[in-house]
Specification:
- The two termini are 24 Å apart.
- The protein has one domain (11-123): Cathepsin B, Chain A (Alpha-Beta Complex), CATH 3.90.70.
- The longest helix is centred in the first third of the chain and has 15 residues, at 30-44.
- By secondary structure, the protein is α+β, with helices and mostly antiparallel strands.
- The protein has helices at residues 17-26, 30-44, 51-60, 78-84, and strands spanning 2-4, 63-67, 89-93, 98-102, 105-108, 119-123.
- It is built from 4 helices and 6 strands, in the order βαααβαββββ.
- Helices cover 34% and strands 22% of the residues.
- It has a 6-stranded mixed beta sheet with strand order 1-5-4-3-6-2, with helices on both faces.
């Protein structure tokens, strides 16, 4: 089920989906997560939104990446993923958007249930 959540301290709907999703999953605040991912970007000499920056940080912090089939017209949506994964915390990536999933619910600033994830992370 979709759960509306915007962890941005100013309530902005910006391109901060990585920070929002990771903060939700790690149970921390937006600013703390922003600082951690920004430092990872600095360490890698790249912007923090670059996939290899935040995914590298996730993997260094005990998460493993898994890929999903993304063939259409039978595309596997965020909604279906949540239905198939009723327990646990996950980070879903669509290639252009990142979503926090917890116990079968997805948390986002908009209902992203029809988006098609192509990979996900789960704590090892």
């Amino acid at each position: 089920m979709y759960r509306q959540l915007n962890m941005n301290p100013k309530g902005r709907r910006t391109d901060d989906c990585v920070i929002r999703a990771l903060a939700k999953s790690f149970g921390t605040d937006w600013i703390t997560m922003y600082d951690q991912i920004a430092m990872e970007g600095r360490r890698k000499y790249d912007i923090m939104q670059a996939n290899h920056v935040w995914t590298g940080w996730l993997m260094r912090n005990g998460y493993r990446m898994h890929t999903l089939p993304n063939t259409c017209p039978e595309c596997y949506t965020v909604r279906q993923f949540c239905r198939d994964h009723p327990r646990g915390k996950y980070i879903l990536g669509t290639g252009t958007h990142v979503i926090a999933v917890e116990d079968g619910d997805w948390f986002d600033t908009f209902d992203s249930g029809d988006l098609i994830p192509i990979y996900y992370f789960r704590r090892i």
